[in-house]
Design goal:
Strand content: 5-15%
Distance between the termini: 5 Å
Structural class: alpha/beta
Radius of gyration: 20 Å
CATH topology of the largest domain: TIM Barrel
Length: 344
Protein backbone atom coordinates (compact mmCIF):
# COMPACT_ATOMS: atom_id res chain seq x y z
CA UNK A 1 0.00 0.00 0.00
CA UNK A 2 1.74 3.13 -1.26
CA UNK A 3 2.19 5.65 1.51
CA UNK A 4 1.30 3.11 4.18
CA UNK A 5 3.32 -0.11 4.18
CA UNK A 6 6.64 1.63 4.44
CA UNK A 7 9.72 0.73 6.47
CA UNK A 8 8.25 2.09 9.70
CA UNK A 9 4.76 0.65 9.40
CA UNK A 10 6.02 -2.84 8.53
CA UNK A 11 8.35 -2.90 11.52
CA UNK A 12 5.57 -1.78 13.82
CA UNK A 13 3.19 -4.52 12.67
CA UNK A 14 5.85 -7.23 12.53
CA UNK A 15 6.50 -6.64 16.23
CA UNK A 16 2.82 -7.28 16.99
CA UNK A 17 3.27 -10.86 15.77
CA UNK A 18 1.61 -13.29 13.40
CA UNK A 19 2.94 -11.89 10.11
CA UNK A 20 4.35 -14.49 7.75
CA UNK A 21 5.61 -12.16 5.01
CA UNK A 22 5.97 -8.44 4.53
CA UNK A 23 5.65 -6.56 1.24
CA UNK A 24 7.07 -3.19 0.26
CA UNK A 25 5.01 -0.29 -0.94
CA UNK A 26 4.46 -0.78 -4.67
CA UNK A 27 7.35 0.87 -6.48
CA UNK A 28 7.50 2.34 -9.96
CA UNK A 29 10.11 0.68 -12.15
CA UNK A 30 10.58 3.99 -13.94
CA UNK A 31 11.90 5.51 -10.72
CA UNK A 32 13.88 2.44 -9.70
CA UNK A 33 15.73 2.12 -12.99
CA UNK A 34 16.48 5.84 -13.14
CA UNK A 35 18.14 5.73 -9.71
CA UNK A 36 15.44 7.67 -7.91
CA UNK A 37 16.51 8.09 -4.24
CA UNK A 38 12.88 7.70 -3.18
CA UNK A 39 12.55 4.37 -4.99
CA UNK A 40 15.72 3.06 -3.37
CA UNK A 41 14.46 4.23 0.02
CA UNK A 42 11.21 2.31 -0.52
CA UNK A 43 13.18 -0.95 -0.90
CA UNK A 44 14.73 -0.71 2.57
CA UNK A 45 13.98 -3.53 4.99
CA UNK A 46 15.39 -5.22 8.09
CA UNK A 47 16.27 -8.88 8.61
CA UNK A 48 13.37 -9.18 11.06
CA UNK A 49 10.95 -8.55 8.18
CA UNK A 50 11.93 -11.65 6.20
CA UNK A 51 10.56 -13.13 4.10
CA UNK A 52 10.33 -9.76 2.35
CA UNK A 53 8.91 -9.03 -1.10
CA UNK A 54 9.51 -5.97 -3.25
CA UNK A 55 6.41 -5.17 -5.29
CA UNK A 56 7.01 -3.40 -8.60
CA UNK A 57 4.73 -1.87 -11.21
CA UNK A 58 5.13 -0.63 -14.76
CA UNK A 59 4.58 -1.57 -18.38
CA UNK A 60 8.06 -1.42 -19.92
CA UNK A 61 9.41 -4.93 -20.35
CA UNK A 62 13.11 -4.12 -20.01
CA UNK A 63 12.62 -1.78 -17.06
CA UNK A 64 10.43 -4.31 -15.24
CA UNK A 65 13.21 -6.90 -15.60
CA UNK A 66 15.89 -4.40 -14.52
CA UNK A 67 13.84 -3.42 -11.48
CA UNK A 68 13.38 -7.07 -10.54
CA UNK A 69 17.14 -7.57 -10.69
CA UNK A 70 17.60 -4.52 -8.47
CA UNK A 71 15.16 -5.96 -5.93
CA UNK A 72 17.11 -9.19 -5.85
CA UNK A 73 20.37 -7.27 -5.51
CA UNK A 74 19.15 -5.45 -2.37
CA UNK A 75 18.37 -8.82 -0.81
CA UNK A 76 14.63 -9.20 -1.30
CA UNK A 77 13.35 -12.75 -0.99
CA UNK A 78 10.60 -12.31 -3.59
CA UNK A 79 9.72 -10.04 -6.52
CA UNK A 80 5.99 -9.33 -6.76
CA UNK A 81 4.46 -7.80 -9.89
CA UNK A 82 1.51 -5.48 -9.29
CA UNK A 83 -1.22 -6.20 -11.80
CA UNK A 84 -4.00 -4.79 -9.65
CA UNK A 85 -3.64 -1.10 -8.81
CA UNK A 86 -6.67 0.82 -10.17
CA UNK A 87 -5.22 4.33 -9.81
CA UNK A 88 -5.73 6.28 -13.07
CA UNK A 89 -2.18 7.65 -13.12
CA UNK A 90 -0.84 4.06 -13.02
CA UNK A 91 -3.38 2.51 -15.38
CA UNK A 92 -3.09 5.15 -18.11
CA UNK A 93 0.58 4.23 -18.51
CA UNK A 94 -0.31 0.55 -18.84
CA UNK A 95 0.77 -0.54 -15.35
CA UNK A 96 -1.15 -2.02 -12.45
CA UNK A 97 -4.57 -3.32 -13.51
CA UNK A 98 -3.92 -1.81 -16.93
CA UNK A 99 -1.93 -4.98 -17.70
CA UNK A 100 -5.16 -6.97 -17.48
CA UNK A 101 -6.11 -5.42 -20.84
CA UNK A 102 -2.86 -6.46 -22.49
CA UNK A 103 -2.09 -10.10 -21.75
CA UNK A 104 0.59 -10.46 -24.47
CA UNK A 105 2.51 -7.63 -22.78
CA UNK A 106 2.00 -9.16 -19.33
CA UNK A 107 3.27 -12.49 -20.62
CA UNK A 108 6.36 -10.84 -22.08
CA UNK A 109 7.01 -8.98 -18.80
CA UNK A 110 6.69 -12.11 -16.68
CA UNK A 111 8.94 -14.16 -18.96
CA UNK A 112 11.58 -11.42 -19.05
CA UNK A 113 11.57 -11.03 -15.27
CA UNK A 114 11.67 -14.78 -14.72
CA UNK A 115 14.79 -15.08 -16.86
CA UNK A 116 16.45 -12.16 -15.04
CA UNK A 117 16.13 -13.29 -11.40
CA UNK A 118 16.80 -16.39 -9.31
CA UNK A 119 14.39 -15.58 -6.46
CA UNK A 120 10.66 -16.40 -6.66
CA UNK A 121 8.35 -14.31 -8.83
CA UNK A 122 4.77 -13.71 -7.67
CA UNK A 123 1.80 -11.83 -9.08
CA UNK A 124 -0.90 -9.64 -7.49
CA UNK A 125 -3.95 -9.08 -9.70
CA UNK A 126 -7.57 -8.01 -9.71
CA UNK A 127 -10.65 -9.86 -10.94
CA UNK A 128 -10.51 -8.03 -14.25
CA UNK A 129 -10.20 -4.60 -15.79
CA UNK A 130 -13.95 -4.02 -15.88
CA UNK A 131 -17.04 -5.69 -14.51
CA UNK A 132 -17.81 -6.95 -18.03
CA UNK A 133 -14.36 -8.50 -18.48
CA UNK A 134 -13.53 -10.82 -15.57
CA UNK A 135 -10.37 -12.58 -16.74
CA UNK A 136 -8.44 -13.38 -13.56
CA UNK A 137 -8.57 -17.16 -14.08
CA UNK A 138 -7.12 -16.76 -17.57
CA UNK A 139 -4.42 -14.46 -16.21
CA UNK A 140 -3.58 -16.88 -13.42
CA UNK A 141 -3.12 -19.73 -15.88
CA UNK A 142 -0.90 -17.55 -18.06
CA UNK A 143 1.17 -16.53 -15.04
CA UNK A 144 1.67 -20.14 -13.98
CA UNK A 145 2.92 -21.00 -17.47
CA UNK A 146 5.41 -18.12 -17.22
CA UNK A 147 6.88 -19.55 -14.01
CA UNK A 148 5.08 -17.37 -11.47
CA UNK A 149 5.16 -19.19 -8.13
CA UNK A 150 2.26 -17.58 -6.29
CA UNK A 151 -0.95 -15.80 -7.32
CA UNK A 152 -2.75 -13.28 -5.11
CA UNK A 153 -6.19 -12.08 -6.13
CA UNK A 154 -8.00 -8.96 -4.93
CA UNK A 155 -11.56 -9.93 -5.77
CA UNK A 156 -12.64 -6.59 -7.23
CA UNK A 157 -12.29 -5.26 -10.76
CA UNK A 158 -10.38 -2.12 -11.65
CA UNK A 159 -13.74 -0.53 -12.33
CA UNK A 160 -14.91 -1.24 -8.76
CA UNK A 161 -11.78 0.23 -7.21
CA UNK A 162 -12.56 -0.22 -3.48
CA UNK A 163 -16.36 -0.16 -3.61
CA UNK A 164 -18.69 -3.09 -3.08
CA UNK A 165 -17.42 -6.41 -1.78
CA UNK A 166 -14.50 -8.53 -2.95
CA UNK A 167 -15.57 -11.70 -4.78
CA UNK A 168 -13.82 -14.55 -3.00
CA UNK A 169 -15.56 -17.06 -5.26
CA UNK A 170 -12.98 -16.06 -7.87
CA UNK A 171 -10.18 -16.96 -5.46
CA UNK A 172 -11.66 -20.46 -5.29
CA UNK A 173 -11.87 -20.66 -9.08
CA UNK A 174 -8.21 -19.72 -9.46
CA UNK A 175 -7.23 -22.20 -6.77
CA UNK A 176 -8.99 -24.94 -8.73
CA UNK A 177 -7.45 -23.83 -12.04
CA UNK A 178 -3.73 -23.72 -11.15
CA UNK A 179 -1.31 -25.88 -9.19
CA UNK A 180 0.72 -23.07 -7.58
CA UNK A 181 -0.25 -21.48 -4.22
CA UNK A 182 -3.11 -18.98 -4.35
CA UNK A 183 -3.98 -16.27 -1.84
CA UNK A 184 -6.96 -13.98 -1.55
CA UNK A 185 -7.34 -10.33 -0.62
CA UNK A 186 -10.20 -7.99 0.17
CA UNK A 187 -12.41 -7.10 3.14
CA UNK A 188 -10.64 -9.25 5.72
CA UNK A 189 -10.98 -7.22 8.90
CA UNK A 190 -11.60 -9.90 11.52
CA UNK A 191 -10.58 -13.37 12.60
CA UNK A 192 -14.01 -14.65 11.56
CA UNK A 193 -13.56 -13.19 8.05
CA UNK A 194 -10.20 -14.88 7.65
CA UNK A 195 -11.27 -18.31 8.87
CA UNK A 196 -14.38 -18.35 6.70
CA UNK A 197 -12.33 -17.34 3.63
CA UNK A 198 -9.92 -20.20 4.17
CA UNK A 199 -12.81 -22.64 4.55
CA UNK A 200 -14.77 -21.34 1.55
CA UNK A 201 -11.90 -21.16 -0.93
CA UNK A 202 -9.23 -23.58 0.30
CA UNK A 203 -6.76 -20.79 -0.47
CA UNK A 204 -3.16 -20.99 0.72
CA UNK A 205 -2.95 -17.52 2.22
CA UNK A 206 -4.72 -14.29 2.98
CA UNK A 207 -3.40 -10.81 2.28
CA UNK A 208 -4.47 -8.07 4.65
CA UNK A 209 -4.13 -4.39 3.82
CA UNK A 210 -6.62 -1.89 5.18
CA UNK A 211 -7.59 -4.27 7.99
CA UNK A 212 -4.03 -4.06 9.31
CA UNK A 213 -4.30 -0.28 9.57
CA UNK A 214 -7.36 -0.64 11.75
CA UNK A 215 -6.07 -3.51 13.87
CA UNK A 216 -2.29 -4.08 14.05
CA UNK A 217 -2.92 -7.27 16.08
CA UNK A 218 -5.12 -8.91 13.43
CA UNK A 219 -2.35 -11.18 12.13
CA UNK A 220 -1.57 -12.44 15.62
CA UNK A 221 -5.26 -12.98 16.33
CA UNK A 222 -5.72 -15.05 13.15
CA UNK A 223 -2.66 -17.12 13.92
CA UNK A 224 -3.93 -17.68 17.47
CA UNK A 225 -7.26 -18.96 16.13
CA UNK A 226 -5.63 -21.24 13.54
CA UNK A 227 -3.42 -22.75 16.23
CA UNK A 228 -6.32 -23.28 18.63
CA UNK A 229 -5.66 -20.41 21.02
CA UNK A 230 -8.02 -17.70 22.16
CA UNK A 231 -7.29 -14.69 19.90
CA UNK A 232 -5.28 -12.01 21.64
CA UNK A 233 -7.28 -8.97 22.70
CA UNK A 234 -5.18 -5.79 23.01
CA UNK A 235 -5.71 -3.68 26.10
CA UNK A 236 -6.00 0.10 26.27
CA UNK A 237 -2.37 0.07 27.33
CA UNK A 238 -1.44 -1.93 24.21
CA UNK A 239 -3.25 0.57 21.98
CA UNK A 240 -1.53 3.51 23.60
CA UNK A 241 1.81 1.74 23.31
CA UNK A 242 1.38 1.08 19.58
CA UNK A 243 0.74 4.77 18.93
CA UNK A 244 3.75 5.84 20.98
CA UNK A 245 5.98 3.23 19.37
CA UNK A 246 4.82 4.21 15.89
CA UNK A 247 5.63 7.86 16.52
CA UNK A 248 9.01 6.93 17.96
CA UNK A 249 9.87 4.84 14.89
CA UNK A 250 8.75 7.66 12.61
CA UNK A 251 10.95 10.19 14.40
CA UNK A 252 13.92 7.82 14.11
CA UNK A 253 13.42 7.57 10.37
CA UNK A 254 12.47 11.09 9.27
CA UNK A 255 12.44 14.76 10.34
CA UNK A 256 9.76 15.86 12.78
CA UNK A 257 7.45 17.56 10.26
CA UNK A 258 6.89 14.53 8.00
CA UNK A 259 6.71 12.32 11.09
CA UNK A 260 3.85 14.47 12.35
CA UNK A 261 2.08 14.14 9.01
CA UNK A 262 2.43 10.36 8.91
CA UNK A 263 1.25 10.06 12.51
CA UNK A 264 -1.86 12.10 11.74
CA UNK A 265 -2.52 9.97 8.64
CA UNK A 266 -2.71 6.66 10.48
CA UNK A 267 -3.61 7.48 14.09
CA UNK A 268 -7.32 7.49 13.31
CA UNK A 269 -7.05 3.96 11.94
CA UNK A 270 -5.21 2.70 15.01
CA UNK A 271 -7.93 4.05 17.32
CA UNK A 272 -10.76 2.29 15.49
CA UNK A 273 -13.17 0.80 18.00
CA UNK A 274 -12.29 3.19 20.82
CA UNK A 275 -14.80 5.64 22.22
CA UNK A 276 -14.29 9.23 21.22
CA UNK A 277 -11.89 8.24 18.44
CA UNK A 278 -13.15 10.97 16.11
CA UNK A 279 -12.46 13.71 18.65
CA UNK A 280 -9.06 12.21 19.47
CA UNK A 281 -8.13 12.18 15.81
CA UNK A 282 -9.05 15.84 15.55
CA UNK A 283 -6.78 16.70 18.48
CA UNK A 284 -3.91 14.94 16.72
CA UNK A 285 -4.67 16.67 13.43
CA UNK A 286 -4.31 20.03 15.18
CA UNK A 287 -1.13 19.10 17.06
CA UNK A 288 1.80 21.17 15.87
CA UNK A 289 4.76 19.46 17.53
CA UNK A 290 6.00 16.12 18.81
CA UNK A 291 5.44 17.20 22.41
CA UNK A 292 1.85 18.15 21.62
CA UNK A 293 1.21 14.82 19.92
CA UNK A 294 2.56 12.92 22.94
CA UNK A 295 0.60 15.08 25.37
CA UNK A 296 -2.68 14.50 23.49
CA UNK A 297 -2.11 10.74 23.35
CA UNK A 298 -1.56 10.74 27.10
CA UNK A 299 -4.69 12.79 27.80
CA UNK A 300 -6.85 10.59 25.58
CA UNK A 301 -5.83 7.27 27.09
CA UNK A 302 -5.85 8.62 30.65
CA UNK A 303 -9.45 9.69 30.03
CA UNK A 304 -10.45 6.25 28.76
CA UNK A 305 -8.62 4.48 31.58
CA UNK A 306 -10.59 6.52 34.14
CA UNK A 307 -13.80 5.54 32.38
CA UNK A 308 -14.57 9.15 31.48
CA UNK A 309 -16.09 10.26 28.17
CA UNK A 310 -13.82 11.72 25.51
CA UNK A 311 -15.55 13.85 22.87
CA UNK A 312 -18.97 12.43 22.05
CA UNK A 313 -17.98 9.02 23.36
CA UNK A 314 -19.11 7.35 20.12
CA UNK A 315 -17.35 4.41 18.49
CA UNK A 316 -16.65 4.96 14.78
CA UNK A 317 -17.86 2.49 12.20
CA UNK A 318 -15.68 0.89 9.54
CA UNK A 319 -17.12 3.27 6.95
CA UNK A 320 -15.97 6.28 8.96
CA UNK A 321 -12.39 5.08 8.68
CA UNK A 322 -12.40 3.72 5.14
CA UNK A 323 -9.24 4.32 3.15
CA UNK A 324 -9.00 3.26 -0.46
CA UNK A 325 -6.73 3.62 -3.49
CA UNK A 326 -3.23 2.39 -4.01
CA UNK A 327 -2.24 6.05 -4.20
CA UNK A 328 -2.38 6.07 -0.40
CA UNK A 329 -2.54 2.39 0.34
CA UNK A 330 -1.13 -1.82 -0.45
CA UNK A 331 -0.46 -6.00 0.71
CA UNK A 332 1.14 -8.96 2.00
CA UNK A 333 0.73 -12.64 2.22
CA UNK A 334 0.19 -15.38 4.67
CA UNK A 335 0.36 -19.12 4.60
CA UNK A 336 -2.00 -21.49 6.32
CA UNK A 337 0.64 -22.13 9.00
CA UNK A 338 2.01 -18.63 9.55
CA UNK A 339 -0.07 -15.50 9.35
CA UNK A 340 0.35 -12.67 6.77
CA UNK A 341 1.17 -9.04 5.84
CA UNK A 342 -0.26 -6.06 4.07
CA UNK A 343 -0.66 -4.62 -0.28
CA UNK A 344 -2.84 -3.04 -2.89
Amino acid sequence: MAGVTDFTFRRLLKRRGGIGMTVSEFISVEGMTRNSPQSKRMMRFLEEERPFAVQIFGANVKRMAMAAEMAEDVGADIVDVNCGCPAPKVVKKGGGSGLLRNLPLLEEILNEIKSAISIPLTLKLRAGYSDSDINCVEVAKLAEQCGVEHIALHGRTREQRYTGLADWGLVKKIKEAVSIPVSGNGDVTSVENALSRFKETNCDGILIGRGAMQNPWLFRQIQDAIEGREPYEPSLEDKQEVLLEFFELLREDMPELPALGKMKQLAGQFTKGLRGGAKFRQTLYHSQSADEILENIGIYFDTLTRGDTFGDGEVESDADLEIGSCDAMSGGSRTRETASSAAS
